[in-house]
């Protein structure tokens, strides 16, 4: 009787394991895919601003200043590196100062393409540097153009996810002469700009 009881227990146990084994599904591997945040860099942006452009001719102590509009657009590859194109042109007359100020009918503009190095100080605020190539043009009846290395420094603040503000300084030209004119004079063309950007 004891042997029969032990045999029944063994048969029931084996049947239970067999049934349980039949109900087990294969375990599928789980891969954790990180979500892509809307705040991640790699975005296009456009901007509009005001620039105070200045051309100084050192030896003759002449200054040409212009109230200008700035258009810019670019792309950030990540939070540290981007590219940016800019076009700046004066609006209205240019102020000429050689000891006495007067308004003259002339045009001053700049177009440039820059690599943009950024450093995020906080999530909303970063500082940046610009380094690239551009062309300055001055036209007072005779047209003068100079192309070469340009650089700048600035800061920008994200007001919202899409809207930001910026302020920067850009050195557009710093060399002797201007397209064959004032060949013995140091000529500096630069601008201080402030404006807003929209990020897509």
Automatic annotation (TrEMBL):
InterPro entries: Beta-barrel_OMP, OMP/PagP_B-barrel
Transcription regulation found in the keyword field: no
Keyword Signal attached: yes
One Pfam short name: OMP_b-brl
Residues annotated as signal peptide: 1-20
Keywords: Signal
UniProt xrefs under SUPFAM superfamilies: OMPA-like (SSF56925)
Domain Outer membrane protein beta-barrel per the UniProt entry, residue ranges: 37-200
Protein name: Porin family protein
Species in which this protein is naturally found: Sulfurovum zhangzhouensis
